[in-house]
Design goal:
The complex is a heterodimer of chains A (314) and B (284). With 314 residues, chain A is mainly alpha-helical. Chain A has 13 helices and no strands. Chain A is 77% helix and 0% strand. Classes of the chains: A mainly alpha (314), B mainly alpha (284).
């Protein structure tokens, strides 16, 4: 087991190395002088030279890559072109809102999706089952900004139940924090609910057809413990896998959701960087999000053996 | 009525009953494609603006009202379908073709396999929307850049799928037989292995098409997609976001359209999967 974890941890290295090479070379793949591209259309010669020196673009390519890799490994993701503040510092300032949004979304989505998926599988073929499946297809088709604006229009603007946009840190109270996150979490969570509910239903259907479920029912195990302890626990592996795959979806969704609801998180940081051509920010956030994705999926892979003792690693 | 016609109608009714999702998705998609192709005939100029008619509600003259510059929302919505469908189809085509080539190689040549799959793992780890943002920031926004930017992160998924199929048929007797007959590798891959990947690839292509349409709209919405002067659904929503309260139609019309197209493609994909790939359909 320990050697398996160790091996998987080592497996992260090549993946992140590919991410690094890829992110680094993007800047050099673009035709023309990267410094001129970043400086924009009406940049002065001095401006371009400053950017070139700033990013080390006047050095040989291999040296640049070596320096950049070394810095990145030490947690130095460069300096913003626009504000001259280190990227890691900017990301740290924006981490709270993004983490809050991701956390509440995940919580809302997993709770709703698993409940719906279990109910749909239990009452397979019923109206409820078909409604859940319908929701799953629809939820996957409506983009987060469309759901977001529909919710804002009705719930925030027409009925005035919740704030239209913005963010309040948790230090100002739990309710003000939560109030601002309800609409964004549900809007962002919809696609995630669709994804997880669908796989929960499928996985539960398979398990519910097993002999030991029939045995449990025959012995007189009550419905709820039967569904949760006997069935859901054994249906967990595919569900957890999909939750992990969905993290990629969540990350992309966070960037858009923060723009819809004006949440000052990492997503806004990136979007604001587009028009300023602040490439170090985009580069740094790409690496951070890729690392988050890889680590979450690593954790999920390792968790399999705890969830399903049949899975053994040699 | 001739008997042939009756039989034909019977099988058609049969097909509809057995594959409701293919039919609903297909019909919806055909209608939207027709609207996109016939846009100049059924809608007025999507770019012309009349400041005097700013933010008018839906009326007989402007079916879906006008936006903040006085442009016809209905016309922009119809023209918007063009970019969405173009991006969806191009991304699906590019990523399926390149993913299939790489996947065939990776599945067949084991020496190639390890390197390629690590590469694909790395690309998959980069969030697609950030990759697209980076490319657009560097190369400037154009439809071509958006298509390439959305296609790259989809390639690993196709590669994995094709590789899995190749691994499962590579050592089956019919492939073995062809190999021992002295069939050259290129022909072996094309004639004997590629056909097994077609059904799952078609299904995958529809899902890629749906997600590409969503991503393009998201990128345009963020201002990192199709240039703002193009009438796309994402651009329409982005330019109208400040008017949500006074002119909700400017956002709801393109939004609902977007959802409908993606829904149609997803339904088509689900239906095709049930028909073409019964192994998966039983589980999902």
């Amino acid at each position: 087991m320990l050697s398996y974890i160790l091996r998987r941890l080592l497996g992260v290295i090549p993946v992140m190395a590919v991410v690094g090479v890829f992110v680094f070379s993007l800047l050099h793949l673009a035709p023309g002088d990267p410094a001129a591209i970043i400086a924009g259309d009406n940049a002065t010669e001095a401006n371009i030279a400053r950017i070139r020196a700033n990013l080390g673009l006047d050095r040989p390519l291999l040296e640049q890559f070596g320096k950049w890799t070394w810095a990145t490994l030490q947690g130095d993701l460069g300096v913003s072109m626009f504000s001259n503040v280190p990227v890691t510092e900017l990301v740290q300032q924006r981490m709270g809102p993004t983490f809050s949004l991701a956390f509440t979304t995940m919580l809302v989505a997993v709770v709703i999706a698993i409940t719906l998926g279990v109910l749909a599988a239990w009452k397979s073929g019923s109206l409820l089952d078909r409604a859940v499946m319908g929701l799953a297809v629809t939820g996957f088709s409506v983009p987060v900004f469309v759901v977001g604006y529909i919710m804002v229009y009705f719930i925030a603007l027409q009925w005035r139940w919740l704030p239209v946009q913005g963010y309040t840190p948790m230090s100002e109270g739990l309710w003000p924090w939560l109030r601002h996150l309800i609409l964004p979490s549900f809007a962002l969570g919809l696609a995630y609910v669709a994804l997880i509910a669908r796989i929960t239903r499928a996985s539960m259907l398979e398990v519910l057809a097993e002999d030991y479920i029939r045995t449990a029912s025959a012995k007189g195990v009550a419905t709820l413990p039967m569904l949760l302890r006997h069935a859901l626990k054994n249906a967990a592996v595919p569900i957890i896998t999909v939750i992990g795959i969905g993290v990629a979806l969540l990350i992309s969704g966070v960037v858009i959701t923060e723009s819809v609801f004006n949440i000052p998180g990492i997503g806004r940081l990136v979007v604001d960087a587009i028009s300023r051509r602040d490439y170090p920010i985009i580069q740094g956030v790409m690496i951070i999000f890729a690392a988050v994705y890889v680590l979450i999926n690593l954790a999920i892979d390792i968790s399999y053996s705890f969830l399903d003792p049949r899975i053994r690693y040699s | 009525m001739s008997q042939d016609a009756a039989v034909a109608r019977n099988t058609l009714a049969d097909f509809i009953r057995r594959n409701p999702t293919i039919v609903v998705g297909g019909v919806l998609l055909t209608l939207i494609t027709l609207a996109a192709l016939l846009a100049p005939l059924i809608a007025r100029d999507p770019i012309a603006f009349e400041p005097i008619n700013r933010l008018r509600g839906p009326s007989f003259e402007f079916w879906l009202g006008t936006d903040s510059l006085g442009r016809d929302v209905y016309a922009r919505m119809i023209y918007g379908a063009r970019i969405s469908l173009l991006v969806g189809l191009s991304v699906a085509l590019i990523s399926v073709v390149s993913g299939a080539v790489v996947g065939l190689m990776a599945g067949y040549f084991s020496r190639f396999d390890a390197i390629v799959m690590r590469l694909m793992d790395g690309i998959m780890a980069i969030p697609s929307i950030l990759l697209a943002i980076a490319l657009v920031a560097l190369l400037g926004s154009s439809v071509k850049v958006v298509i390439i930017a959305i296609a790259i992160p989809e390639i690993p998924r196709v590669t994995r799928l094709v590789r899995a199929v190749v691994l499962s048929v590579r050592d089956l007797p019919f492939v073995e037989a062809a190999r021992s007959n002295g069939t050259r590798v290129a022909k072996l891959l094309r004639r004997h292995i590629l056909p097994s990947t077609v059904a799952p690839l078609i299904v995958q292509a529809t899902y890629i098409c749906a997600s590409a349409i969503l991503t393009e709209a998201g990128l345009s919405f963020l201002g990192a997609g199709t240039p703002p002067e193009f009438p796309t659904w994402g651009n329409m929503i982005a330019s109208s976001r400040l008017y949500l309260q006074i002119a909700p139609w400017t956002i709801f019309a393109p939004g609902i359209c977007l959802a409908l197209v993606v829904l149609a493609v997803n339904l088509l994909g689900d239906g095709l999967r049930d028909r073409l790939d019964p192994r998966i359909s039983r589980r999902m």
